[in-house]
Inverse folding.
């Protein structure tokens, strides 16, 4: 969904970017998107929260699998 996609992008930014402003702007966009999706009644609140959580976990799993030290 909308929030899951934005959270995946922001999680990637937070993990790999060195630019502080980029991280802040991305985080604000993710929170704003999630709030707009919830308040516009496009999805249940629980759908947005669970989607964001799964998205976050997927990016972290990807990072650990791809960049794991062997």
């Amino acid at each position: 969904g909308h929030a899951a996609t934005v959270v995946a992008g922001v999680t990637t930014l937070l993990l790999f970017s060195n630019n502080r402003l980029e991280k802040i702007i991305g985080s604000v966009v993710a929170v704003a998107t999630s709030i707009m999706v919830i308040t516009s009644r496009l999805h249940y609140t629980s759908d947005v929260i669970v989607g964001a959580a799964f998205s976050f976990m997927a990016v972290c799993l990807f990072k650990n699998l791809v960049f794991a030290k062997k």
